TrEMBL record:
<dbReference type="InterPro" id="IPR011251">
    <property type="entry name" value="Luciferase-like_dom"/>
</dbReference>
<keyword id="KW-0560">Oxidoreductase</keyword>
<dbReference type="GO" id="GO:0005829">
    <property type="term" value="C:cytosol"/>
</dbReference>
<protein>
    <submittedName>
        <fullName>Alkanesulfonate monooxygenase SsuD/methylene tetrahydromethanopterin reductase-like flavin-dependent oxidoreductase (Luciferase family)</fullName>
    </submittedName>
</protein>
<dbReference type="GO" id="GO:0016705">
    <property type="term" value="F:oxidoreductase activity, acting on paired donors, with incorporation or reduction of molecular oxygen"/>
</dbReference>
<keyword id="KW-0503">Monooxygenase</keyword>
<dbReference type="InterPro" id="IPR050766">
    <property type="entry name" value="Bact_Lucif_Oxidored"/>
</dbReference>
<dbReference type="Pfam" id="PF00296">
    <property type="entry name" value="Bac_luciferase"/>
</dbReference>
<feature type="domain" description="Luciferase-like">
    <location>
        <begin position="23"/>
        <end position="291"/>
    </location>
</feature>
<dbReference type="InterPro" id="IPR036661">
    <property type="entry name" value="Luciferase-like_sf"/>
</dbReference>
<dbReference type="GO" id="GO:0004497">
    <property type="term" value="F:monooxygenase activity"/>
</dbReference>
């Protein structure tokens, strides 16, 4: 059975310091609740500046605060925008968190489609994000593996966690990126709102598996499948609830998908859009049937649920999402 994770979208309309403090406190409470409920991992994304959904520029720092409230749950980034990072500093911060947490870090990185507006502020052109990613993932892997931090120095980072480089995940947006992650023996993340299941996600997973090369004797492919999950009385009832919220945003979501090379979502209505990206919605029976029929979930090592709809994070809704995830797993739908 795959591991079950929870992705937290930390939207916030009020960006004042008191509101941000409440957001962080609510998130930490939800992470603790997820661990108590048996969830295997929590994933937090990175968002720079006020033109993104919420104030989480440093997910590793926020996850460090979760260490004091948890003892088992994995702490993942979903994702850090690697082209905007210094690989040495990212490796140092991830290593520090990994030591503090007892080896629970899962380091998800990507090219930064959600942070395109931040590139110029960091002195980069967003059109260069794929080249920057390729350069920095090679550098990050070397540093995490304990190789010298520069050609002119034999020094390595501290703390050096020997196996942390085997807990790196790449959010893949093309077949070439999936193959590259496979050759490196790293995990991949697919799904969410910007890629269709059959035409987009499945070919990437298959390309990754074909290219996968183990980096250690115990290494196996790692496939994280992100799915938006909305449970209610029925599919029609959930659609009626979501239509006024998500319906107006579909053109923007389709535009965002096109940034990653996926133009197939343009012009779709809400039901067709949700079905195309593999969203799980409706009654518990509907959810179980959808998960069992999902060809990408069938290949997953990790299934990560996300249910963000509102522009401001809701701890109550996130706890309900945890409860729904536990209920789905208890049904035993997803088995090897």
């Amino acid at each position: 059975m795959p591991r079950f994770g929870l992705a937290l979208n930390l939207g916030l309309e009020d960006r004042s310091v008191p509101a941000t403090a409440r957001l962080y406190e609510d998130v930490l409470d939800v992470v603790a609740y997820a661990e108590q409920s048996g969830i295997d991992a929590v994933w937090i994304g990175q968002h720079h500046f006020t033109n993104t959904p919420g104030p989480v520029p440093s997910p590793l720092v926020l996850l460090t605060a979760a260490v004091a409230r948890t003892s088992r749950i994995d702490l993942g980034t979903g994702i850090v925008t690697l082209p905007l990072e210094d690989p040495i500093r990212l490796a140092e911060d991830a290593g520090t968190l990994d030591v503090l947490s007892g080896g629970r870090v899962q380091l998800g990185v990507g090219t930064g489609g959600a942070n395109l507006g931040a590139f110029s502020a960091f002195g980069h052109d967003s059109a260069d994000r794929h080249r920057l990613f390729d350069e920095k993932i090679a550098r990050l892997n070397d540093i995490l593996a304990g190789r010298p931090v520069s050609d002119s120095s034999p020094a390595i980072i501290q703390p050096h966690v020997p196996d942390l480089h085997r807990r790196v995940w790449q959010a893949v947006t093309s077949l070439d990126r999936a193959r590259s992650a496979g050759r490196l023996g790293q995990g991949i993340q697919v799904g969410a709102f910007f890629d269709s299941v059959v035409d987009g996600q499945l070919p990437k997973v298959e390309a990754y598996l074909d290219a996968y090369s183990s980096t250690g004797p115990d290494d196996l492919p790692r496939i994280g499948v992100f799915r938006f999950v909305y449970l209610g009385v029925s599919r029609d009832a959930v659609l009626a609830e979501l239509e006024p919220i998500l319906g107006p945003r579909l053109p923007l979501l389709a535009d965002r998908a096109s940034v990653s090379g996926n133009d197939r979502l343009r012009g779709l209505g809400l039901e067709d859009y949700l079905d195309a990206v593999g969203a799980i919605y409706g009654s518990a029976d509907d959810a179980q049937a959808a998960l069992a029929a999902d060809p990408v979930v069938a290949l997953a090592t990790d299934v990560v649920a996300n249910s963000a709809v509102q522009s401001t994070f809701s701890a109550t809704a996130s706890r309900a999402q945890v409860d729904a995830l536990v209920a789905v797993r208890s049904e035993g739908v997803l088995v090897e």
